[in-house]
Amino acid sequence: AVPTRITPSARSGREVVGMASMCSDNRCSESCTCADVRNRSKDDDVGVSSQLTPREMACATRDFATRTDAQTAALNERRPDECSRRPWPSSAQDDDTRGLWEDAGTCAVQTTSPDDCEMMVHRQATRDKGMPGDIIAALLQVASSVWSVRAQGLVEMTAFAGEEKLSELVPATLLSKVASAVLEKVSDPHYKVALAAMECVIALVLNSPFVAEPILERLVPQLLLRSQEGREITRTVAQTALRAVQTSFVPEVLFPILVRVMDVPAPRVRIGALGFLTACCLASPAYLSISQHLRSPFQKTLLQLREKNSELRRAALITLRALFDASGAIMVQQAMLLPVPILNELKAGMREVNCSSFDAAFAKPKLSNARTSTEPPMRHDPQFVGGRHAGGSIDSFDWLTPSKQSSIESLALTATESMQATDPEVAHVRLVNGVASSMSGLEHFNAEDWAAITPSLLRQLSGPAPSTNQRDALLKIQKLCFCVHQDAEIWSIHFEHVLEAILRSLQHEDPQIRELAISCCKDLLRAVPQRFRAFTEHVLLRMLAAGRDEVICVSAAAEEALELLLTASDSHRCMALLVPVVMKEGPPTLQLAVRLQSKLVNRFTQLQLLSILPQILPPLFEAFKNPNADVRKAVVFCLVDMYMILGEQLTPHLAILSTSQLKLVTIYIDRVRVKQ
After folding, report:
1. Which residues form the TOG domain (predicted)?
2. Angstrom distance (rounded) from CA 123 to CA 646
C-alpha cells in the first residue's frame, strides 16, 4: 500500500530511480536491472511513466511503499515546505559536507526552491554537528550561484566570527577556508554580497585577527578599491573595514604590507594605499621614529612623485608630509642622502603641501627638532641620540666658564638618573630628553674647544669608566662630528684614536652603549668620509660582527653603517672584502654580506662587473643552496641586480643553476622589468 501523502506519481524520475535502486536487495522478487533503470532517468521534470516500463514501475512502487511505511509519520511531522528533491551536489566532496547533504536528503518529500534546501541544510548542521557544521553549511551557501544565498551565508559567517574563542571551537583548516571564501566575495559583482563580505571581514578582524592575517596582503587592495566606488554605502563599509584593519594590526604588520601594495600597477590601488599609509603614519609616530622602519615607506612613497598621474602624485606628497610629521629629523637625515635633483624635487613638493618646516630643516644645521615643542623626542632621532647632541663629564671641564660648567653638570646628572630606570626604553628616553635640554651650553664650542676636550673623552671610552661616563663621551663625540668641519686639524690628530674608541665600544655589554657607538660611527662617516678609506677593511669586518648582534636595533644600525661605509669607500676593495665573507660565513652574516654586494653591484659599469664575475658568482651560487630562505632570497636579488646591468651577457653564467633556481631568478627579473 502506497502512502496517500507520498506517491510515486508525484515524484521525479531520478528520485524513483533512487528508490528503485533498492531492488538489488532481497526484498525485490521481480527481476530488475537497477543500472538500466538509473540510466533511463535523465530529466528531473519528466514524469515516471515516460521514464520507466510498467514492470519497473511496479517494482519501484512496491519497494518504496515497503521502505517508507515505518517512516511516514515521522516524515509528515517535519516541515515539507523546507525540503527539496535536489540530490546532493557533486561539489560536496569531503565527508562532513557529504554527510550534511545526505541527512538533508532523508526528509525530501516535496519540491521546493533551492534556497529553502540551503536553509534546511544549515538547520540540520546546527542540530547535529554544532558550530563546525554551521560553518560548513554557510560555506555551501557562499558557494551558491544565487546572490541572495551567498549574502545569507556571509551573514551567518559574520555571526560565527563574533564568537569568543573561535580558534578553540573551529579547526584551523576550516578557518582558512572561511578566510578564503570571504576574501573571494569581497570582489563579488553583486554589491549586496560584497557588503556582506566586508561586514564579515570587520567581524573577523576585530574578534579573530589571526584568521585574517594570512590573507591581509590580498585583502587590503580589494578594500582600497571598494573604498573608492561610487556607491556611498559600499565606500562607507570599506572604510570601516580599513579602520578595523588599522586598529587590529600592529605597524610591524601593516607597513610592510602597504609598501608591497604600492607595487600594484593600478593607480587607484596605489592612491588608496597612500591614503591608508597616511592614516597609519599619524597613528604610529613611535614606530616611524626608528630609521630602518621609516626607510621603506619613505623610499616607496618618493617613487610615486615621478608618476604622471596628478592624483597619485598629490597623494604621495600628502603621505610624505605625514611621514615627516611622524618622524621629524629621521626623515630629514634620510633625505640628505638623496641625489641633489631628487632632493630638490622633494623640497618643491613639500612646499606644495605647505610643509615649510621641511625646507627649514635644510636651511642651516641647528639643534632643534622638526617636531613641535610639545612632542617628545623619539628614540633613534639623529638630532638626539642618533645624531648631534652630546653629553659631558664634570671632571673634564675645569677650565670652562660657570655657565658652561653648570649645563654640563646638569647633563651628567640627567645621564646618571636615566641609568637608574629599570626599563631600558624608559632609561633611553630619559637620557635623550636630558641631553636635548642640557646641550645649550655646548652649542658655541669651536674647533679649539673640542680639540682641548677630546683627549679626556678618549680616556673615558678606553678606561674602566662606568657606563654613564662612556655614554656621555659617545654623545660628545657625536656633537663633535656635527660641529667641527672635516678639514679641521683635530681630525688629523685624533681621527684614528676616535674611530678605535668607538669600535671598541661595540663590544660593551650594555646594548644601549653598543647602539650609541654604531650611531656615533655613522655620524663620523658623514662628517669625514674620506678618512675612512684607509680603514675600510677594519671597519667593515667590525660592523659585520655587530650585524650578528641579538638586539635587533643594534644589528639594524650596523647594516645602516655598512651602507654608509660602502658609499665612502672604493667599490672594488669592498667587493674583494665581501667575497670571502660570502664564501665562509653563515647566517645572519651571510645574507647581510650578499645584500651589501647587491648595493655594490649598481656602482660598477658593465665592463667592470664582467671582469669580476668569476670571483663573485661561485660563492653566490653556493649560497643559493643554503637552507636559510633569507639567504636564498638575498642571492636572487643580487643576481637580478646584476642582470639589470649586464642583461643577456649574464645568461651564460647562470647555466650552472638548477631549473628551479633559474626559474625563480627569471620570475624576479620579469617583475623588475614590469616595474621599470
Report:
1. 120-359, 438-676
2. 65
